[in-house]
Design a protein that fits this description.
The protein is 47% helix and 23% strand. By secondary structure, it is of the alpha+beta class. The protein has one domain: Orthogonal Bundle (Arc Repressor Mutant, subunit A). The chain starts with a strand and ends with a strand.
Length: 90
């Protein structure tokens, strides 16, 4: 299971979804992370515990993409979040 660490909010700024660290998190991550519509969708899901499989399933249901396309997108997104240090992976 994985989810977004506490201390981050998402704001829409001029047609762009941006993650903003708040409180102590602002000392760990300087700046913001831009998200496209798919990234914002996945981020919202990751506010609660999720598995990679549940994210892939949600993406295939809400977007007209194949299982393989969804899996690639989810893996890329999760990798980015891990690199930025915003993902709790249990």
């Amino acid at each position: 299971m994985m989810k977004i660490k506490s201390g981050f909010i998402v704001r829409k700024i001029a047609d762009q979804h941006m993650t903003v660290p708040v409180g102590e998190r602002s000392q760990e991550l300087h700046g913001m992370i831009g998200l496209n519509e798919t990234g914002a969708f996945l981020w919202k899901l990751l506010e609660e515990d999720q598995t990679e499989e549940s994210l892939v399933s949600a993406l295939t249901l809400d977007y007209e993409v194949t299982q393989d396309q969804a899996k690639t997108s989810v893996q890329t997104f999760l990798s980015r979040l891990k690199d930025e240090g915003v993902l709790e992976d249990e």
